[in-house]
Amino acid sequence: MGCRNFGAMKVRVRFAPSPTGGLHLGGVRTVLYNYLFAKKHGGTFILRIEDTDRNRFVEGAEEYIFSCLEWCGLIPDESTIAGGNYGPYRQSERKPLYLEYAQKLLDSGHAYYAFDTTEELEAMREHYKANGYPNPQYDHNTRMKMRNSLTLTKPEVQKLLDDQTPYVVRIKMDPNVLLTITDMIRGEVTFDCALVDDKVLLKADGMPTYHLAVVVDDYLMEITHAFRGEEWLPSAPVHILLWEYLGWKHQMPQWAHLPLILKPDGNGKLSKRDGERLGFPVFAMNWTDPRTGEAARGFRELGFIPAAFTNMLAMLGWNDGTGKEIFTTEELCERFSIERVHKGGAKFDYEKAKWFNNQYIQQMDADKLFELVKPFVVAKFPNAEDTLLRRVIALVKDRCTLLTDFWEQGHFFFTTPEVTELQAIREKWSPAKAAFFAAWAEACHKNDYPDAHQMEADFAALAATHQLKKGELMLPLRIMLVGGKFGPGVFHISELIGGYETSVRIRAVLELLS
Ligand code: GLU
User: Fold this and answer.
1) Which of 7, 163, 265, 374 is most buried when burial is the number of CB atoms within 10 A of its CB?
2) Which residue has a Cα nearest atom 7 of ligand 1?
3) How confident is the model at residue 259 (pLDDT cuts 50, 70, 90)?
4) Is the shortest distance between the CB of 232 and ligand 1 below 6 Å?
5) Is the pLDDT score of 3 beyond 50?
6) Is 161:167 a contact under the CB 8 Å cutoff?
7) Which segments of 305-370 are extended strands (E)?
8) 36 C-alpha vs ligand 1 centroid, how far in Å?
9) Would you say the CB of residue 24 lies under 6 angstroms from ligand 1?
10) Is the predicted pLDDT of residue 369 greater than 80, yes or no?
């Protein structure tokens, strides 16, 4: 099949979501590959809302999609929000256009009216199944036995139309055609049109199906490259024939069908249920389905950094061949090539996703990290003070993988922790230790130690006067200050919360132990 010569043409790509739910990993990866391709070629990235299936329409899904893209930093150049010269960008607002092209297909004989009722369609299926065809469909084998404008006379058809009998418009697939396209990822793919059914193009409600709308809009919006999920590959022959039948073959975009994102074990497509079962999100952001009230967790709320999330997604099915894994978005824009996307599905590995986030946290500039961590901490503790938070971030950062970890690892700097590991102190407790800690609390109460080293030296010296080893006192001290057996260097903690607060926490635990 001929493709446009893109030499002199400006690249225009689109992401075309249906507002039917939350945006999952596969959807965001499609956005990302479109975005990277557009940026690399100085092109335009368009977002088109495909909302012609009113049964699957979900309130709020469109807004949610835009918020996700904003969080990811993948902002479309043209969309319902950004505007542009090719609007409207919402298919439900383009209805007259589709009617016009459906009529063109009817007039040229490439499409036909079908008046079959649900019962008639069901009867056809039953009949064929009973006669040795396990998967009957509305196609060249069956169409001539159905109630449509191919089998009825012109006056009969006109009468049905005049009587406002419900109908759909179907494409008339040519069973004698073998179609070959060059997919940018898969190479040459050939389809036998005899195996493809006469898809509905226009529904009884006058709305186009995806098949008609996608071709009309890709044409009118001058899309040069169409990247979409591989689940659409079987529909490609319908779309290619429509490009041809509408006389636009020379303008057909180049196709790339993106591989699936697979479950961690590689066994089938990753689904929301896998995420719930295995404890990881598959949605970019938290999403509550307004129809069911069902909530799903998102990467944003779990504490992923947008750039780490998109970096991880870029690598799900693509690499630059050098083994490099960490790329800034700018680097990705430069290096990305759709031809290097793998044909096979990409396994999603949540541990690897967290590894990316950890790499970003460890390498990030302190101010940037502060901006990202702050909302997570403020959500837990609204009065968190900036200077203290900056110091906490520096202290606990190497223990953090997700942005939410900063609160887990650092909450005791802001609030008195609950002591969950008292038993661990109790097991090796002694009157000598009790006396030592009472004395140490006293010392801390009086002296606001200026630095951790001085404090540690004094602590060791005091231990010696009590005939105790510093080593056996460190764990009790840690538990007294943070509540459990975790956290950064204990004297750094003490330095940051201050001598007074140190003494208060030690005394509170001594009380519990006595
Ligand atoms: N509306 C389709 C979907 O949500 C878009 C497929 C395409 O990009 O052509 O999957």
Assistant:
1) 374
2) 228
3) very high
4) yes
5) no
6) yes
7) 346-347
8) 18
9) no
10) yes
Q: How many CA atoms does the CB half-sphere of 399 hold within 13 Å?
A: 15
Backbone angles phi, psi at 347, to 5 degrees: -75, 130
Contact between residue 76 and residue 69 where contact means Cβ atoms under 8 Å apart: yes
Q: Taking all residues of the chain, what is their mean pLDDT, rounded to a whole number?
A: 95
Atom of ligand 1 nearest to the CA of 210: 1
Question: Which of 13, 15, 18, 217 for mutating ligand 1's site (highest number of atoms within 8 Å of CB)?
Answer: 18
In the chain, the domains with their CATH numbers are 94-213 (3.90.800.10), 422-513 (1.10.10.350)
Alpha-carbon torsion, ordered 425, 428, 429, 431, to 10 deg:
-160
Beta bridge partners of 179: 191
Q: What is the DSSP letter of 427?
A: T
Catalytic (active site) residue 354: no
| pLDDT at residue 5 is higher than 50 | no
Nearest CA to ligand 1 atom 5: 16
pLDDT of 140 reads 96
Q: Which of 172, 272, 354, 397 is catalytic?
A: 272
Ligand 1 centroid distance, CA of 402 (Å): 32
Q: Is residue 309 very low, low, confident or very high in pLDDT (cuts 50, 70, 90)?
A: very high
pLDDT at 341: 96
Structure tokens at 389: 């938070």
Tens digits of per-residue pLDDT, 127-174?
A: 998 988 888 999 999 999 999 999 999 999 999 999 999 999 999 999
The pLDDT of 57-73, averaged and rounded, is 95
CB of 282 shorter than 6 A to ligand 1? no
Angstrom distance (rounded) from CA 154 to CA 373: 70
The residues, ordered by sequence, that sit 6+ positions from 303 with a Cβ below 8 Å of its Cβ are 357, 376, 402, 403, 404, 405
In whole angstroms, what is the distance from residue 47 CA to residue 40 CA?
Answer: 18
* Two tokens, residue 356: 């990316």
